[in-house]
């Protein structure tokens, strides 16, 4: 994998979403879970999506692979518009995009042996001639994630969290997808196991040329695995940037605060810290603040911020920010 | 330095259908007045069981098999459940002198009771004679202390009406307000001296975690509290802890002042934990160095050092238990690589560490 960032325009676009909106109605009120976000993921690239809980990052990802029907906007997968396809029409596209879930306990059917879990997507998509061939593919997939062939006959409860997450990865990769949505794939794992899973995802990316949409709230891990990072706040994308640059030069005040909130494993760095970096909490998405959603918590807010939402602005070199400070 | 709590040789096991789970296998440490002691470890390392043992909150099948937990001159580990006097003392301790903050504030608060009532309950338990209006005043005082905006009206809020961060503040308020004389009202004096916080910020977002950690740090300073902070996140430890214990397989592998351990980690497991996390300067493309394998099965923990099956420097000697090597007055580690006869070649801990 290239250590440098995939510059925009380089490589083939695997996923493009334009002005995507996903609204839910809740007791007569409208929750704008995703409110007009646009982003592009290139072949073989990892795009990290970060933000606090409730910012819409998971909804955006689920919307992008059409688990939800988006309220507005456009989704282009590998050159084809899939925004309004029916479930039946979507079937061939499902092979190209797969998902790895956060909780390795609830995302595997506990009443199915591992081989059935792995063969289910093959059956559903009519891949493989017969049962024998599918079983062989399942065993190969298990071995590729470092689990022994005999694991195929076992049930999920016989495995540890890290091993279950590997089974989840094997299930996602067995369809040979081009894009894998990783929704907090390591949050439920122990630190020593997290690195194992992350390294495995990187190896697969190198070997198979996969693109990842990597969702997490752990910014230090996201920055490490991603080529580019997008920061979301209350349904909107506030900053998109190459992952190295996001530490060196975060522009949006929210990104800055988010980065400073990460506990640093070095007492020398943190001993001078006496107060929290950001006051208050994420407001309710049912009734978000007017203008820039972040302005009530922002230390640099001006009257304009409360009136008008900023437009996303290209700062050059693939760095986009949505903040009145830069307009 | 005044010692608040002294645990020595603690052994706690659970009896299950599959056999004896040896969760804690001989743990000794002390907690000083006014310090935050971090206990770091992965799931199954025994860190939470150690905490539950201190307050005797183990489930039915959990037994303290050996060791002592000295608090105010008495041994909590030896208290008999059949002795009414001992039980009364334990009730005074729980929430009165030692209190606990749990990971998930949603499941540890009663959803059918207003948060104010729940804090009031904790105070009333230890102050049966306090009149109602003073109880209420004390609740408000503590809600304000933990920076809950609009404290008077939040008294009547139910847990589901609050965010995760606010609920954790309520938990902290409840933990601090018990005791015969917490707060500034009549009879003020001694509130809880020791707070055990078990992964208090794990369920929270980073910006809220930051706020809660800073609140704990302020409370420690203001009330001269001692805090045991259990976490799996080395970053959290570095942020607010004075001292730390690294636990694995039911044992303390390394103990020391937080800066000491971060500067000279002196156990292969601690080294492995630090290498598994991306550092600030880590670039994409430089692979993380994971610890291979998985944590031990505590039904059959490995003989000797619990970490040797995963340790890249393991030798034959590691199947027998190493003693602690004192590196400084405050820093000790349990590893054969630190012994005087350890090999000089291929040893991550150079002469300087061993001689320190």
Element-level helix/strand string of chain B: EEEHEEHEHHHHHEHEHEEHHEEH
Mean pLDDT of chain A: 89
Biggest β-sheet of chain A: count, sense, barrel?
A: 8 strands, mixed
Radius of gyration of chain A, taken over Cα atoms and rounded to an integer in Å:
21 Å
Strand order of the largest sheet of chain B: 6-7-8-3-9-10-12-11
CATH architecture of the domain at 13-96 and 184-192 and 210-326 in chain A: 3-Layer(aba) Sandwich
Kindly report how far apart the N and C termini of chain A lie.
Answer: 35 Å
Task: Supply the number of helical segments of chain A.
Answer: 11
Outline the biggest β-sheet of chain B: 8 strands, mixed
- Any idea what the shape of chain A is? globular
Secondary-structure-derived class of chain B:
alpha/beta
Question: How many angstroms separate the termini of chain B?
Answer: 23 Å
**What proportion of the residues of chain A is helical, as a percent range?**
25-40%
Your description of this structure?
The complex is a heterodimer of chains A (327) and B (356). Chain A has a domain at 13-96 and 184-192 and 210-326: Rossmann fold (3-Layer(aba) Sandwich). Helices cover 31% and strands 22% of the residues of chain A. Chain A has helices at 57-64, 87-94, 114-124, 131-144, 161-173, 191-208, 219-225, 243-248, 253-261, 267-270, 303-307, and strands spanning 13-26, 29-42, 46-50, 72-77, 80-81, 97-100, 179-183, 211-216, 228-233, 236-242, 313-314, 320-321. In chain A, the strands form 2 sheets. An 8-stranded mixed β-sheet of chain A has the order 6-7-8-3-9-10-12-11, sandwiched between helices. The longest helix of chain A has 18 residues, at 191-208. In chain B, helix 4 (115-126) packs across helix 5 and helix 4 packs parallel to helix 7. The two termini of chain B are 23 Å apart. Chain B has helices at residues 47-54, 84-93, 105-108, 115-126, 132-145, 151-154, 164-177, 206-223, 234-240, 258-263, 268-276, 351-355; strands at residues 3-16, 19-32, 36-40, 62-71, 74-75, 98-101, 194-198, 226-231, 243-248, 251-257, 324-326, 332-334. Chain B contains 12 helices and 12 strands. Chain B is of the alpha/beta class. In chain B, 31% of the residues lie in helices and 22% in strands. In chain B, the strands form 2 sheets. Chain B has an 8-stranded mixed β-sheet with strand order 6-7-8-3-9-10-12-11, sandwiched between helices. Chain B has a 4-stranded antiparallel β-sheet with strand order 2-1-4-5, covered by helices on one side. The model of chain B has no long low-confidence stretch (mean pLDDT 89). Classes of the chains: A alpha/beta (327), B alpha/beta (356).
């Amino acid at each position: 994998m290239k250590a440098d960032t995939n510059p925009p325009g380089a490589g083939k676009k695997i996923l493009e979403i334009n002005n995507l909106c996903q609204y839910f109605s809740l007791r007569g009120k409208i929750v704008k879970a995703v409110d007009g976000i646009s982003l592009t993921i290139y072949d073989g690239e990892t795009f990290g999506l970060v933000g606090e809980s409730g910012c819409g990052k998971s909804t955006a990802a689920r919307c992008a692979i059409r688990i939800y029907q988006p309220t507005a906007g456009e989704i282009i997968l590998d050159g084809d518009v899939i925004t309004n396809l029916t479930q039946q029409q979507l079937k061939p596209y499902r092979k190209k995009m797969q998902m790895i879930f956060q909780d390795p306990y609830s995302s595997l059917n506990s009443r199915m042996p591992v081989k059935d879990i792995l063969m289910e997507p093959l059956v559903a998509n009519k891949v493989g001639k017969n049962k024998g061939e599918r079983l062989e593919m399942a065993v190969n997939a298990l071995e590729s994630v470092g689990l022994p062939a005999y694991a195929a006959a076992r049930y999920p409860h016989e495995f540890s969290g890290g091993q279950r997450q590997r089974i989840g990865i094997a299930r996602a990769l067995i369809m040979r997808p081009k894009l894998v949505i990783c929704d907090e794939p390591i949050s439920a794992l122990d630190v020593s196991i997290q690195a194992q899973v992350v390294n495995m995802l990187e190896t697969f990316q190198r070997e198979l040329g996969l693109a990842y949409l990597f969702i997490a709230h752990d910014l230090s891990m996201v920055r490490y695995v991603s080529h580019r990072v997008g920061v979301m706040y209350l349904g909107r994308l506030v900053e998109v940037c190459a992952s190295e640059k996001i530490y060196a030069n975060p522009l949006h005040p929210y990104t800055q605060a988010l980065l400073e909130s990460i506990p640093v494993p070095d007492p020398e760095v943190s001993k001078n810290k006496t107060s929290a970096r950001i006051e208050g909490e994420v407001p309710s998405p049912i009734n978000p603040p007017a203008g820039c959603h972040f302005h009530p918590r922002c230390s640099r807010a001006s009257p304009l911020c409360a009136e008008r939402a900023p437009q996303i602005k290209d700062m050059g070199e693939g760095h986009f920010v949505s903040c009145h400070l830069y307009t | 330095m005044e010692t608040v709590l002294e645990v020595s040789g603690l052994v706690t096991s659970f009896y299950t259908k599959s056999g004896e789970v040896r969760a804690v296998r001989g743990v000794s440490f002390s907690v000083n007045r006014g310090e935050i002691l971090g206990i770091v470890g992965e799931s199954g390392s025994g860190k939470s069981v150690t905490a539950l043992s201190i307050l005797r909150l183990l489930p039915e099948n959990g037994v303290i098999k050996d060791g002592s937990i000295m608090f105010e001159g008495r041994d909590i580990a030896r208290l008999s459940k059949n002795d009414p006097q001992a039980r009364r003392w334990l009730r005074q301790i729980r929430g009165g002198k030692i209190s606990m903050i749990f990971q998930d504030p949603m499941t540890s608060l009663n959803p059918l009771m207003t948060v104010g009532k729940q804090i009031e309950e904790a105070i009333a338990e230890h102050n049966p004679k306090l009149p109602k209006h003073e109880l209420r005043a004390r609740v408000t005082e503590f809600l304000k202390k933990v920076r809950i905006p609009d404290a008077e009206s939040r008294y009547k809020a139910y847990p589901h009406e609050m965010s995760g961060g606010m609920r954790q503040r309520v938990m902290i308020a409840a933990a601090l307000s018990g005791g015969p004389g917490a707060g500034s009202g009549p009879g003020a004096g001694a509130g809880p001296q020791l707070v055990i916080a078990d992964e208090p910020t794990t369920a929270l977002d980073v910006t809220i975690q930051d706020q809660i950690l800073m609140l704990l740090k302020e409370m420690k300073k203001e009330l001269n509290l001692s805090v045991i902070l259990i976490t799996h996140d080395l970053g959290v430890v570095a942020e607010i802890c004075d001292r730390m214990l690294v636990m694995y397989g039911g044992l303390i592998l390394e103990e020391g002042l937080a800066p000491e351990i971060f500067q000279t980690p002196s156990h292969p497991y601690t080294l492995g934990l630090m290498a598994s996390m991306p550092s600030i300067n880590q670039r994409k493309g430089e692979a993380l160095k994971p610890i291979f394998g998985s944590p031990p099965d505590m039904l059959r923990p490995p003989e000797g050092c619990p970490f040797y099956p995963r340790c890249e420097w393991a030798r034959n000697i590691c199947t027998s238990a190493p003693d602690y090597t004192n590196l400084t007055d405050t820093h000790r580690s349990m590893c054969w690589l630190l012994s005087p006869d350890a090999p000089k070649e291929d040893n991550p801990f150079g002469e300087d560490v061993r001689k320190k």
